[in-house]
Write a structure and sequence with these properties.
There is one protein chain. By secondary structure, the chain is mainly alpha-helical. It has one domain. Helix 1 runs antiparallel to helix 2. The radius of gyration is 39 Å and the shape is rod-shaped. It starts with a helix and ends with a helix.
């Protein structure tokens, strides 16, 4: 009977050791799965945010190109109108101001174009 009790005690302690080892293995597997899921979510968020950032930079760049194109058309029109007003004598004062404004606008637009690339 003592031998049976000793055998039972040895068997139960070895079963508990195996159960603890399996529990540790399961915990490690769950932890690694959790870490993979979290890192996947982080990569997805980073990819999304990078896409949003690139979209905003593209929109700003295109918007500035449109403004520069409008400024170029405007300074040509202002310069020609100012030249006509000044040369015909209809309104020489206003014509000079339009020409100066066209020159300032041209400088600003061309410097912005140079900075934009």
């Amino acid at each position: 009977m003592a031998l049976l009790a000793a055998l039972w005690l040895a068997l139960s302690s070895s079963v508990q050791g195996v159960a603890r080892a399996q529990e540790a293995s399961v915990n490690q597997t769950l932890t690694s799965m959790y870490d993979e899921i979290i890192s996947g979510i982080e990569r997805s968020i980073d990819k999304f945010m990078k896409g949003v950032q690139e979209l905003f930079l593209y929109a700003i760049h295109r918007g500035l190109e449109v403004l520069i194109t409008i400024a170029r058309a405007s300074y040509v029109a202002l310069g020609l109108l100012g030249l006509v007003l000044w040369a015909t004598g209809v309104s020489p004062y206003r014509g000079r101001h339009l020409i100066v404004g066209a020159i300032v606008l041209a400088i600003m637009a061309e410097v912005a174009r140079g900075l934009l690339g």
